[in-house]
Amino acid sequence: MVSVLPQLEELKGAALDFVFPRFCVGCGKEGDFICNACQASLPWIESPICPKCGKLQTGLVLCPNCNNWEADIDAICSPFRFEGVIRKTVHEFKYHNLAAIAGQLAHFLGDYLIDNPILYDVIVPVPLHYKRLKERGYNQAALLSIELSRLTGIHVNGISLIRCI
């Protein structure tokens, strides 16, 4: 028996795109949330970077700040510098209900992790304060984690962290 679920998902996506077309956050062009031209201009962080904090540096060893850092964090990474189109995109995602962009952002993260592998067993989204969650209607970190999990097969654990303040 042939499953029709993938075809239904594709049809649903096409119908939504017809009723609510996607426009590029960077230039306003119809088609995707970040068009190919704007993707080409994204401020990718390129090696060498500090393996602990992810800041640009001259070698692949810990930067001077991380040599004395005693936090129990193995690594912090980001594919982009927080500027330009990516900054605007994150703001739209967090503050202007552009939850649908989580999939495209997860693809960027997934591609980054292929090129810059780090060891991890689980994805843990940081919980929002309940007032922020009520304002936004969703936790952007949780949405991004779910999409990244779909791409990588790594389990999401959304209950390990508890926001205290």
What would your notes on this structure say?
The protein is globular and about 50 Å long. It has 165 residues and is an all-alpha fold.
Element-by-element helix/strand order: HHHHHHH
Instruction: Please bin the fraction of helical residues.
Output: 40-55%
> Separation of termini?
51 Å
Percent of residues in beta strands?
A: under 5%
| Overall pLDDT | 84
According to DSSP, the number of beta strands is 0
What kind of assembly state do the chains in view correspond to? single chain
The residue ranges in which pLDDT falls below 50 over 5 or more consecutive positions are none
| Derived structural class | mainly alpha
The 3D shape can be described as: globular
Radius of gyration over alpha carbons? 18 Å
Please tag this protein with its features.
mainly alpha, globular, 165 residues
Question: What can be said about this structure in brief?
Answer:
The protein has 165 residues and is mainly α. The chain has seven helices and no strands. 42% of the residues lie in helices and 0% in strands.
SSE inventory with pairings:
Blueprint: H1 5-19, H2 36-40, H3 64-67, H4 84-95, H5 102-115, H6 130-136, H7 140-152
Helix pairs in contact: 5-7
